[in-house]
């Protein structure tokens, strides 16, 4: 069985790097745990880092956080579904909101549970996912700020999550101005301008982050160390927090070109033959995982020269060329991962998850 390894030292290194940069600017921040899919031993690693604020988009994952350490502030990072409101009040200290009717229900449920629930109003800044329109914000806030058992602790936005709209100084300055408008009109203090995410972090590194942004939510950058503007690694960060280990279940020298009439495979693909490969052979290894677990687009072989040639539901085939490179049946092949690949593996019951 393939397994996914979390490298503790790399995670600690990246956390300390991020903390040093954000703390130096006086910016509060929390770690987004949704990639971990509620994997308890991995969430424990976040807690052991000293994280005091964890964000997630699944209530069950926030429940796991509270079971590990009830003192951690939990943040539910999408507009709540009405059916989930009792659980959100129970396990989330803060939630992102965009709908007045939902906030009223949160207020009522918080009263029943004798709690004060914090909310962040999400504002639409161009990516067209969740968010109240800017021109409607003052009216929206005016209807909720006096609701019992509810307190607005921040304004926030998400960029690059749906259509790929990138953050800019102008957009983030506008977000900060909304805070000033609310505070001036209603004489109320808004604690957070939560405009910071992994995709915004490069603006901080380049000294381009507007001063008003005082809260970050960091996930992908912690786990992969990527600059999402350049799609390259950030100098000083580790890219190997997660490592996939897949076992070889067959290793045979075979022709490079299939034989017989070709049609589409179960994935809807049709193989195109390279005529230069006729008559050639290579060592082909079959790995004990497949498309049910991960798309091959999200796999990055660690060893140079390893080439992924295809996959079916439960097996991936790699080409080792004319040499076996000392591999044997039962050996492990290592891969780094892209974000969506790690997400699929972490959500799979068929992949073991261990900590190094």
Automatic annotation (TrEMBL):
InterPro entries: Ala_racemase (IPR000821), Ala_racemase_N (IPR001608), PLP-binding_barrel (IPR029066). This is Alanine racemase. The keyword Secreted does not apply. CDD domains: PLPDE_III_AR_like_1 (cd06815). Its EC number is 5.1.1.1. Keywords: Isomerase, Pyridoxal phosphate. It is an enzyme of class 5 (isomerase). Residues 9-226 form the Alanine racemase N-terminal domain. Its cofactor is pyridoxal 5'-phosphate. The keyword Flavoprotein does not apply. GO terms for molecular function: alanine racemase activity. It comes from the Bacteria. Coiled coil: none annotated.
């Amino acid at each position: 069985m393939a397994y996914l390894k979390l490298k503790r030292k790399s995670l600690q290194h990246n956390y300390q790097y991020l903390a040093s940069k954000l703390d130096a600017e006086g910016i509060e921040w929390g770690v987004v745990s949704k990639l971990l899919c509620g994997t308890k031993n991995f969430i424990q690693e976040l807690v052991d880092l000293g994280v005091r604020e964890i964000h997630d988009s699944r209530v069950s994952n926030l429940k796991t956080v509270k079971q590990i350490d009830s003192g951690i502030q939990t943040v539910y990072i999408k507009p709540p579904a009405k059916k989930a409101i009792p659980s959100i009040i129970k396990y989330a200290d803060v939630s992102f909101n965009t709908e007045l009717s939902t906030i009223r229900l949160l207020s009522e449920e918080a009263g029943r549970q004798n709690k004060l629930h914090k909310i962040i109003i999400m504002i639409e800044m161009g990516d067209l996912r969740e968010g109240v329109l800017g021109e409607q914000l003052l009216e929206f806030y005016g209807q909720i700020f006096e609701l019992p058992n509810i307190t607005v602790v921040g304004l926030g936005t998400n960029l690059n999550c749906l259509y790929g709209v990138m953050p800019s100084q102008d957009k983030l300055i506008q977000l900060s101005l909304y805070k000033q408008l609310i505070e001036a009109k209603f004489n109320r203090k808004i604690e957070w301008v939560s405009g910071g995410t992994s995709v915004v972090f490069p603006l901080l590194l380049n000294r381009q982050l507007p001063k008003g942004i005082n809260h970050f939510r960091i996930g992908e950058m912690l786990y992969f160390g990527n600059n999402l503007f350049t799609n390259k690694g950030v100098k000083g960060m580790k890219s190997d927090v997660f490592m996939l280990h897949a076992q070889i279940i067959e290793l045979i020298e075979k022709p490079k070109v299939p034989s017989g009439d070709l049609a589409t495979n179960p994935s809807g693909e049709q193989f195109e033959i390279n005529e230069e490969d006729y008559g050639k052979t290579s060592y082909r290894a079959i790995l004990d995982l497949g498309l049910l677990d991960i798309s091959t687009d999200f796999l990055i072989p660690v060893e140079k020269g390893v080439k992924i040639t295809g996959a079916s539901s439960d097996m991936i085939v790699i080409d080792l060329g004319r040499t076996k490179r000392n591999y044997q049946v039962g050996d492990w092949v290592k891969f780094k991962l892209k974000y969506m690949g790690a997400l699929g593996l972490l959500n799979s019951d068929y992949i073991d998850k261990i900590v190094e």
